[in-house]
């Protein structure tokens, strides 16, 4: 069975790059969200195995989304992908249970490598 992935990013281009890379690598993209509220709803409804999560969304921070999905009991592998590269932010995200933090700009292979490492 393919691992199910939810992609969360407010940039359509970034979602498309991640979707193509992970689909090509054999993952099943079950949804894409461009806001935190949509991400939380989809995560609860679809119960993905993996969530790629931007840290800066129009309505909330990825850090806050991560807190909520963990409180909801969703134990998906979370790969944070963000332009915010401050060590304190990275530490906070990893402490909350994200498996990996990728700083933008990234390559499609960076994402596939991270998902392969933590989701299999």
Question: Percent range for helical residues?
Answer: 40-55%
Q: In angstroms, what is the radius of gyration? A: 13 Å
What is the 3D form?
A: globular
Distance between the termini: 11 Å
Low-confidence stretches: none
Major beta sheet, strand line-up? 2-1-3-4-5
Q: Characterize the biggest β-sheet.
A: 5 strands, parallel
- Total E-strand runs: 5
Give the mean pLDDT. Answer: 96
The amount of beta strand, in percent, is 15-25%
Helices, by number, come to: 5
Structural class: alpha/beta
Query: Could you spell the SSE succession in H and E letters?
Result: EHEHEHEHEH
Would you write up a description of this structure?
The structure is a single chain. The chain has helices at residues 12-24, 36-46, 62-71, 87-95, 108-119; strands spanning 4-8, 28-33, 50-53, 77-82, 100-103. The chain is α/β, with parallel strands linked by helices and 120 residues long. Helix 1 (12-24) crosses helix 5 and helix 2 (36-46) runs parallel beside helix 3 (62-71). A five-stranded parallel sheet has the order 2-1-3-4-5, sandwiched between helices. It has five helices and five strands, in the order E-H-E-H-E-H-E-H-E-H.
Reconstruct the topology from this structure.
Elements: E1 4-8, H1 12-24, E2 28-33, H2 36-46, E3 50-53, H3 62-71, E4 77-82, H4 87-95, E5 100-103, H5 108-119
Parallel strand pairs: 1-2, 1-3, 3-4, 4-5
